[in-house]
Amino acid sequence: MEFESIPGVGAKTASALAELEDAKRALREGDVAALAGAPGISEGRAARIARGAIRREHDDSSRLLRTDRAREIHRELLALLQERAVTSYAKRRLETFYPSSSSSRIEEVQSFAQRATDRDPDPDVRGALAGVTPLEAPRQVRVRDRCLVTSDAETLAAAREAVPELPVEVCEDARGLADLARGYSTVIALDEAFTGVEVAGDVRVRPDALDDPAETVPERTLSFFAGNRESIRAAIAVHRTADLDPTCDLAALDDALSRLGPDGEVKDDAELERLSRAVSDLDASVHTAESVANDSLRGAIEKRDVTIEGTDLLSLAERGAGIDSLLSRELADEYDAAVEAAREHLIDALALDSGESEIARNAFPEEPTFPVEHDESVVGRLREELVARKERRATRGKRDLAADLAAFREPSASLVRAALELDVELAVARFAREFDCAMPAFGGAGIEIEGGRSPLLSEPLEAIEPVDYTVAGVTLLSGVNSGGKTSTLDLVCAVVILAQMGLPVPADCVRLERFSELHYHAKTQGTLDAGAFEGTVKEFADLASGGEGRLVLVDELESITEPGASAKIIAGLLEALNETDTTAVFVSHLAREIRAAADCELAVDGIEAVGLAEGELVVNRSPVKGRLARSTPELIVEKLAREEGTAIYDRLLGKFES
Ligand SMILES: Nc1ncnc2c1ncn2[C@@H]1O[C@H](COP(=O)(O)OP(=O)(O)OP(=O)(O)O)[C@@H](O)[C@H]1O
Fold first, then answer.
1. Which residues contact 531 (CB under 8 A, 6 or more apart)?
2. Do residues 238 and 128 lie in contact, with contact meaning Cβ atoms separated by under 8 Å?
C-alpha cells in the first residue's frame, strides 16, 4: 500500500510509516499500537490513519464488486477460507483480503499467497495453533508489600505515572521513613537525601527506580507473561511443529514460563514454599510443641515420689511459693528436657533455619512453670521474621524470573505474531490444495479458464466436473435446463474475485483481464411488476453506458417480463454493451430470439446435452463456443422422433430447426 494515498497522510508521515516494518500489516489490521510506533505518530493520529486506510480499502473493494450477488460470492469465498483457519485472529485477518483492481495490491497479496501455498498444511500444526491468541496488555497489578517514598511533589507525580502499581508515599524525615518501614516489607526511597538514614527494616535508596519501571515492578512483566502464557506456549509448539525459524531460544523461554504460576507467582521455589508453610503452620505447631512439653512433664511428675522434709515444705509454704518452685527444686532436669523437646518439635515441624531457630528457642520459658506456656511476644517476633523473609524471598524470586522473562518480551510477541500469520497462510494453503488451485495470470482481454472447479457448488469435490470457458466481449450463454449455466457464471465470478484478491484460483490454468468493475445479476424470481421492471431496465441502461474494463454477468434477465419484450430489451442492451470495452455473459433461454432481435452479430455459446442416459441428460459442462445449445424440450422431441418414428414428432422437430 502506498502510504501517501491514504486520506490525511502527507509525505512526511508516509516516510515515517515506510520506516516502520510492520506498518503495512498494521494499516490493514487497524493495529493502532504498531502504527503508533512510527516516529512522531501519536496514538490518536495512528487511529485516524488506520481508519482512513481501512476505509480506502473498503472503497476499493466496493468499487469492484458492484452487485449484491458479487458481494455475496466474495463473502462465500471468505467463509471457505475462514473455515480453513484455526484462530479467530486468522479468520478476522482473512476478512481484510478484498478484491481490488489495483495491480500493486494484487501483486502484494500474490507474493503472500505464493509463500502460503509453499507451506505444508500439517494437521499437527493445526492442533498447536488452537491455543494461540493475540497477546494482551498486562492486567494492572497492585503491589502492597513495597512502596516508593519521596519528599518532592514533582517526583511524586512522576512516580505515580511511571509505576501506578506501587503505593507512593510522601515522607520528609527519618521518623516518617521508620513508620513506613514498619508497614511495608521494602521501602524504596527515591530521594538521594535518604542515603545513610538509619532505620529498622528494608529501606533502599534508589533515585533511578523510575528509569526502569519493569525492574522496580517485576510484577508487571510477570503479569504480562502470566496472562499470555498459554498463547506463548502454544506459539512455541507451533514453531516446533511447523519448524519455523524461532526469534529466540525456545527452550529457555519455555523453561522460564514453566517457573511462572497462573497468577504471576513464582513456582517451584523450595525456600519460598518452606517459608510460606512455616508462616501458615506457625500457630498450630506452637500449640503442638506446648502439648509435647506438657505431656512429657506430666508423665515425669506422675512417676516421681516427691519426698520433702517438713521444714522445707513449711519454709516454701511460708514464702508463698507454689508448684513452680517445687518443680525447679525437684524436677529441673525433667523440665529442661520437656522444654527442649518442645523447641525441637517447633524447629522440626516448621523446618526453621538456624537464625529462625534462635528466635524459636525463646518461645518457651527457661524458668520452670506448669503447665508450660509459650511466650506470645516471641512467637509474634518469629512470625514477623518469617513473613519478612518470605516476602523478600518472593520479591527476589519475582525479580529474577522477571529479569529472565523481560528479555523474551519482544521475541514472544514475534513468536505469537508469526504463529498467527502462519494460520492465515495455512488457511490459504489448505484452500489452494483442496480445490487444486493455480495462480492466475493477468493480461489480455476477457477471461480464459481451463479446468475450473467452482468452489460454490454443493457437490463433493470429486463429483465436480471441470469446466473450460473462455469469454471476451459480449456473449450469450445458452444451454439445457440444469446444464450448469448459473454454475458457470458463479465459477467465472469466483475466479475473478479470488484472482483480484491476489489468491490462487480453483482451476488448472486461468488468464484474465484485470477488471475495473464486476457486475453479477442473479436470476430474477418471477415477472416483475411495472415499477420494478422500470427500475431494472434503467439499471441495465446505465450499465450499458458505463466505463471500460468491466465484467458483466447476467442470469436469465428474460424472466423480468414476457418473452417477446424481454428478447427485444436484452438485444438492445447487448448491442449497446457490444460497443463498449466490456466482457459480458448473458445466460438466456431466449438466445435464438435475442440474436434475431439484435442489429449486430451476437456471439453465443452453448452448454449442450451430449445425450440422454436412463431418462437423464448427459451434459458437457464446458460451454461450446459459437454453438446455440439445443434446449431440453428440443432434445426430448428429437428423442421421440427417433424412437416413435411418427410424422408429428418430425413436424415438431422441424419447428425447432427453422
Ligand atoms: N461443473 C459441474 N460439476 C458437477 N455438477 C454440476 C456442475 N455444474 C452444475 N452442476 C450441477 O447441476 C445443477 C444445475 O446447475 P445450474 O443451476 O448451474 O444449471 P442451469 O443451467 O443454470 O439451470 P437452469 O436452466 O435451470 O437455470 C447444479 O446444482 C449442480 O448440481
1. none
2. yes
54-84 per-position pLDDT tens digit: 777 767 767 899 999 999 999 999 999 999 9
Q: Are strands 146-150 and 186-189 parallel, antiparallel or unpaired?
A: parallel
> Residues 368-386: pLDDT tens digits?
787 889 999 999 999 999 9
Burial annotation 315-327 (CB, 10 A radius, 16+ → b, else e): eeeeeeeeeeebb
CATH code: domain 441-627 is 3.40.50.300
User: What's the rounded Cα separation, in Å, for the pair 363 and 440?
Assistant: 86
Atom of ligand 1 nearest to the CA of 488: 18
Strand order in the sheet with 447-452: 441-442, 509-512, 447-452, 467-471
What the block records as the C-alpha cell of 262 is 497462573
For the chain, which residues make up each domain, given as ranges?
1-63, 146-216, 290-381, 441-627
The model carries a pTM of 0.79
CA distance 575 to 460: 39
Q: Give ligand 1 pocket residues (Cβ under 6 A).
A: 457, 459, 463-465, 467, 479, 481-487, 621
Q: What's the 74 CA to ligand 1 centre distance in angstroms?
A: 20
- Cell numbers standing for residue 201: 527494616
Listed in sequence order, the residues at least 6 apart from 62 whose beta carbon sits closer than 8 Å to its beta carbon are: none
CA of 481 relative to ligand 1 center, distance in Å: 8
Separation of first and last alpha carbons in the chain:
58
Q: Is the pLDDT of residue 44 over 90?
A: no
Alpha carbons 195 and 206: distance in angstroms, whole number:
9
CATH topology of domain 1-63: DNA polymerase; domain 1 (1.10.150)
Distance from Cα 559 to the centre of ligand 1, integer Å: 18
- Residue 341 pLDDT class (50, 70, 90 cuts): very high
Helix (H, G, I), strand (E, B) or coil at 571: helix
Q: Please give the number of the atom of ligand 1 that sits closest to the Cα of 467.
A: 1
AA letter at 432: A
pLDDT digits 0-9 by tens, 463-503: 999 999 999 999 999 998 889 999 999 999 999 999 999 99
User: Which residue of 480, 486, 632 sits with most ligand 1 atoms within 8 Å of its CB, as the best mutation to test the pocket?
Assistant: 486
What is the rounded radius of gyration, in angstroms, for the C-alpha atoms of the chain? Answer: 43
Q: Taking the CA atoms of 82, 87, 92 and 95 in sequence, report the sign of the dihedral they define.
A: negative
Give distance in angstroms: CA of 543 to centre of ligand 1. 27
- Alpha carbon of 576 to ligand 1 centroid (Å): 29
- CA-nearest residue for atom 14, ligand 1, is 482
- The 3-state DSSP class for residue 138 equals coil
Backbone phi, psi, residue 168, to 5°? -115, 120
- In this structure, the residue with its CA closest to atom 5 of ligand 1 is 464
Instruction: Return the closest-CA partner of residue 449 out of 390, 490, 420, 492.
Output: 492
Residue 7, H or E segment: none
Closest atom of ligand 1 relative to the 556 alpha carbon: 27
DSSP string, 444-506: SSSEEEEEE--TT--S-GGGPPPEEEEE-SEEEEEE-TTSSHHHHHHHHHHHHHHHHHT--BS
Nearest to 259 by CA among 280, 281, 237, 233: 233
320: left (phi over 0), alpha (psi -120 to 50) or beta: left
- Residue 572, annotated as binding a ligand: no
